[in-house]
Each structure stands twice: as structure tokens, then as C-alpha cells.
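Subject: mismatched residue count in predicted assembly?

I count 523 residues in my input, but I want to confirm that the predicted structure covers every chain. Input:
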Amino acid sequence: MEKSLKPRLLIGKPGLDGHDRGAKYVAQILRDAGFEVIYTGIRRSPEQIVDTAIQEDVAAIGLSLLSGAHNVLFGRVLELLRERGAEDVLVFGGGTIPPKDVPRLKEMGVAAVFTPGTPAREIVETIDGLLAQRPAV
Amino acid sequence: MERSLDQLVSEARGGGPRSQRAAARLMSVMTDQPHRLAELLAGSRDWPQPRLVLGITGAPGSGKSTLADHVVAELRALDPRRKVGVVAVDPSSPFTGGALLGDRVRMMRHATDSMVYIRSLASRGHLGGLALGAKGVVRVMGLVGCDIVVVETVGVGQSEVEIAQNADVVVVVLAPGQGDSIQMLKAGLMEAGDLFVVNKADKPDAAQLQQQLLAMLERSRTARLDLAHGASEPLVCHGPQLQGPGGPIDIQQDRPPPPMDFDEETPGVFLCSAANHQGIKEFVAALEELTTRQAALWQARRQEQAVEEIRQAVLEEVRRRVSHVLQLNGNGENQIRRILAGETTLNELVDWLMDVAASGTNAKSPAASDAKSHLRTEAAGRAEFA
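Triage response: the counts match. Full output below for your records.
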């Protein structure tokens, strides 16, 4: 393909916390890095996020969460993606997630977890790297 | 691995759990893969089509997404078996190429409604070709059974207006507080409207805006009428009668009225407060009525556009291939400098580019190098580019 178009990404905010400064900031970072970023707004259900990801044909979903319900909600998003035959959609996450929970999230299938203080460059490079490994569709 | 288009088309058309995913992939092909777009557009002639493609455009913040959201809600409420599509276009950054697509935020209540299909697109400004890609996305929405498709774009910039103009009906959304009557006199956006929505009717200045809009529409109707006549034909004035000392003055004495063979209709103006679902029922009812009246005409118009679509797809593909060759050669800077230095001509360079582009993926193989004799051989040309 010509001038390789960067993949489309979805930034979703599942659960009930209404604090989306982080989600918006990451969306802006990714936008400025040349991605087309779709933002869902706050307080979305995993169903809404997964249905949106499928309709928008995104390569990856970024989930932002500060309520502490990450184990349940990230897990539900992954489960729904599998149910819909869309397990090739990459899932990454961020927010106030205790470091001790990160290994478990990765085991569940979350490709990367960005905790507070992660440099913007690291986020962009990690996502670039993860997406480069995906087979083209 | 590229999946076959036929396979995707039959999956999307078939309904079932895989349908949405296949449709989403087809839309990506339409927007991201110009080399497959032409084939797909040509093949889409016999797909089912939406009855109405409604373009919604207007300044940022005038409430386009909220209007689209409420129009969709109203359409779904009127007929729960009806599928509705939304194509929401937001601007790409001219600096980084990135985009933040946020129209969905206003429409999330439809996210899990399987009868509503929403797709966000970035306008991709200078990259070109989105108008056609967006058309392709609408086509796929028809394929999956959408009866009405709403295409929402910001009404600034040529590409955005172009996208809106591919719709059957274009509605321009205005909101109070966005400028005076001089803004309405400016060319572009206001000319694109078949219908107008004065949104945010709950704001105090909405009624005044509506009056300004009506005055503007009346003025442009008169201007069109005036221009439609020869220089020697006087215009029949239907305005108020002039009063002279001896009674009313008849300024049209002895002059026959000029023929009136143009569209007499003034675009409809609707006062809405979309966020409160106010005025939406009336607006949707008017759309339904218009669709019933015009659907056959629109279908015919879309058929007529087929040739133009393929022509655009061909041009887009030519542009893509030629700029690909330029890119392969470090944007051809050395070659372009040779033109500046008078060592070669622009025509020669273009001929060479087209030759290389025509040999496609084999552009680098020396086998294709015995092109026209008056041109440098390809291998030599490449050396000069390096």
C-alpha cells in the first residue's frame, strides 16, 4: 500500500468511573502520532465497546479504567471479542492499575498495560511494535 | 493474506454473526485500498441500496452528531424493523495525519442496537479519495440492508462538502451564536443545503437566526431568478406595490412576465433542539415525505453517477501509482532539480514516471528498461534519481 495508513484504534472507557483525563490524553498522544483514534466517551459497557470496535474495524482497543474493576471488565471485553470471532483485535489498557495485577491481566490476553507515569513515547512505540507483528488482513 | 472480496460480500450480505465483521472489513477496503476500490465499486451495482442517503453538514459544534443521533432514534422508533446507517466524518490533522473521531460519543445509545450501523471516518484531507471511499462505505451499508444512511461531515473544506454532496439530500445545520448575516452571504456551505436545521432552538437567538436564514434564502432565490433572465428582460417584481400620489404604480405595464422555468422551491427550514428531541419528529416526517416522493429520481441519479465514480477511481489509482514511483525514488528530488536546471523537461519526466508506473511491481527490473528510445532507459533513470 502507498504511504502506509496507520491502523485505526479505539479508546474505550468501561465501567463507572467518570474520570477520562487519562483516556483523552492517550487519545491525543496517539492522534498526534498519526493514528486515527475513535473515542467512546465515559461509562460504556464492554458490549458497547466491543460492538463499536467491530463496526469500526479497529486494529486495537485501549481501555482506560480507574475504578479498580479492571480484572472483571478487561476480561469481559476479551471474552466478548472471542465470542464475536474478533480475537485478533489487540487489547491494551491503562489507568490506576496495581502493578501486582499486571501479570494476571497479561495472562488473560491484555497485550500491554500502561500504568501512571508511562512516557508517551513508550505508549506509541509499544503499540506500533505490537501492531507490526499482526498479519495484514 | 487478503481475503477475497466475493467472500466478504457474501458474508456481509448473509446476515448472521459474521455479517457485521465482514461488512466492517469491506468498508476498510473501500477507504484504505484504492487499488481494490474500483473493482468493488463496479461490482456493487447490483447490491441493495438505501432509499435515502442524508448528508448532514455544518460548522463544528452546531450539533450535527446530536441531530444524527436523534434522527436515528426517531427512525428506529417509527419502524423497529428498519436498519439505519451512520457515516460520521471528522477531520484529519493536516500536520500529523492523525485524527480523533469523536462523533460516536453522541451516539453510544445505539452501540448495541444491531439494527444501527455506525462508521467513523477521518477526512484524510490532502491524501484525497475519501469522497469516493465514503461513497463505498454507504454502498456497504446498503448491502447489509440499511434503509436510510446518514452521512455527517464538518462543513468546512472542499473534501467535506464533496462528501456531503454525494448524498441525496443535504441538510445544513446552523446554531445561534456562530456569526452574523454576512457569514450567510459567503459562498460554500450555505449553497450546499437542500434543507436547513436551525438547531439549539432553546437558545434565545435561535428565532433571529431563523429569520436571517429565511431572508438569505429569499435573497438567493431572487438572485437566481434575476440571473436566469436575459439582460434585456425586466424582472417581474412580486414585492409590495409602490404607492404614487395617484395610487399604486404599476411598474410592469406593457411588459410580459418572463418565463419561470427553474426550480421555484425554497429550501425548507426546521427549528430544532436536537438534544431535547424537539422538532425532530417534524423533521423526520418531512424527510420521509420527501423520500417517498423522490426515491425513484434519486435511484436514477445514482445510476448516472456510476461512470463518474469509476472515472474518479481510475484517476485516484493513477495518482497513487505515479506518486508511488516518485516516492520509491526519494520523491524524485534530483530529477525535479534537473528540470529546474534546464537539463530535462517536465514532459519527459512525466513520460518516464508513467512508463515506470505502468510496469507496476516490475518497476525495478531491468527487463522493462527498453522503453521509448528518446527517454533514458529505466535503469539509467533510476541511477539519476538516486
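Chain A has five helices and five strands. Marking this ticket as 'not a bug'.
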